[in-house]
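Branched-chain amino acid transport system carrier protein: structure tokens wanted.
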Amino acid sequence: MGRGERIGIGLMVFAFFLGAGNLIFPPWAGQLSGENLWLSLTGFLLTDVGLSMLGIVAIALAGSPESLTRDIPGFLAPMFWIAAYVIIGPAFAVPRTSVVAFDVGIRPWLPGDEQSYLALYSIVFFAISAWLCIFPGRLITVVGRILTPVLLLVLLAIYIAMFLQPPVTFGPGLGPWANHAMLEGAVQGYQTMDTLGALAFGLVITSAVKNYGVTSRRELVRYTSEAAIIAGIALSVVYIGLFYLGGISRELIPDAANGGIILSYMVVYLLGDTGQAALTVVITLACLTTAVGVTTACGNYFHSRWPKISYRFWVIQISFLAMIVANAGLNTLLKLSVPVVLTIYPVAIMIISVELIRTWVVINREVVRASLLVVVIFSAVDGLYSTGLIDSWTFVRYIPLFENGLGWMLPGLSVLLAGWLFFLLKVRYALR
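Answer:
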């Protein structure tokens, strides 16, 4: 593969991930973190960019998504994949594309009853999305090639206008962002759902590399890793600008309900109605392209699991359900997604981590299963706690990092490390 092909695949990966959540969570985190903005950004980059790109590499190492979950016993592995595709499909990620496109691109232009406008918009949005999924053609390719450069140009214009503003003194972090900004940023990185997206798109990315004649596993991992690095750098640059945008927005729009409102307001403030018009077109196309890509991936997966049910049926059902869910509104979707993401994300992190660690050391399958069981238990408690249902369970407050949504981390990693050391010593003593 030549350098141009490698860069092209890297930009393709970047386009996969530059969706709704990637544009709304950074400004929100930047505003709340205040003077701790750079700490918050670090946590966000670790869980969003870092984990997503490592997820792509892990699938290249494993060879397929199913191989990545080979340690999960029996029917639980398919359940994990079904849950992952439902979450990034009709439950949260796909509906969010419509809502973000409406909130950021359309709502600023509309008066009156926003809910009725959202209902109408979601019907049109998902009808177009389903049609493009069922009858893919040159439109997707053209939009994909034009969209990313235009979006980057709009973001560049925003950044230039932003950095030309007088210097701003960031205030203190708000709430937990005052003392745990890095951890809060990490949890916000969860909310983009990009790590689950990496697992869903990983096979597409490795297939793109193979299309250039790459056959050996070593070269596949190498070129996939290079593409992930290119995409990671591009995403990081975008996030740095959006975090800073959120940081300077606090005095201008202190009561914003979410990052979409911050982004829309700041674009008008910095670039006027022309900037808002450009953002409307670009955000709509970006979210539509993301919806088409994710819906197609979900449709293909469910069709592969149940071949007797047509791909078209799955696409229509996913689009219809996403349309229904979208009408809950962005704030409701963000609130509902927190416990679900806190529960399943740690499992994805562990299976990715284990696959990468196995490049250097041998880890027994029983050890992996034990650590995953511990992670599932603690992450489920994390998820329930975020809903307020177990607020009276005072014992959970003694779990390290629990109140930051990371209560699973030390128990899960401790079991993994202890199990690995146990079997390592057992083998060594058996050989003596």
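Residues 331-432 form one domain. The mean pLDDT is 83.

Cheers.
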